[in-house]
Amino acid sequence: GQQLNQSPQSMFIQEGEDVSMNCTSSSIFNTWLWYKQDPGEGPVLLIALYKAGELTSNGRLTAQFGITRKDSFLNISASIPSDVGIYFCAGRNSNYQLIWGAGTKLIIKP
Amino acid sequence: SAVISQKPSRDICQRGTSLTIQCQVDSQVTMMFWYRQQPGQSLTLIATANQGSEATYESGFVIDKFPISRPNLTFSTLTVSNMSPEDSSIYLCSVEPTSGGVRSPAQYFGPGTRLTVL
Hints:
The complex is a heterodimer of chains A (110) and B (118). Chain A has strands at 5-7, 10-14, 19-24, 31-37, 44-49, 55-58, 61-65, 71-76, 85-92, 98-100, 104-109. Chain A has 110 residues and is mainly β. The N and C termini of chain B lie far apart (36 Å). Chain A binds chain B through residues 30-31, 33, 35, 40-45, 48, 50, 88, 90, 92, 96, 98, 100-103, and chain B through 1, 4, 41-43, 45, 92, 94, 103, 105-112, 114.
């Protein structure tokens, strides 16, 4: 079946640093979604992308829908302690199935 | 979006028993989904539960093990039957609201039920 390759698997960063993560696939997607999951909680939608090339921001978060429709990235600027968590990408294909990445765990060094 | 609650939030169960997880939504939705998230892993879809029809199960999941009810447009239950330690996971329900008859491209999740089977 379709797969999403999400990287990196985990990131150790200093507070204040910028963060970048991405998802790639050999398949085309019609929608890209980025979620964050805090411990003990369900995933929360951060950003939804609907068109190739679309660049969307939500506060310090910026995400882009790749022009080939096979990839997407999420950037977090000036990270703060509450950014810690697991970030998931998800792509919706032409069959309207939602395919999930494996997640990127963000850890802030003390 | 939608506000979704799940009960219980967590439970510890004995091998061989069953647990029913409830999912309540604050608005009427047609499309509801049940996921399993094993420790440190991504989300795996168990089944799609649409009101008015039988649940549709993904490969590797069967109705005898994970029976689902969907009695109305705001509620669903997932039962984990004859549990074993391998069933220890977070179970999540999600919804896709519709607006003007158009299905949302995003899913919205409940807080999850953390199940530990001894």
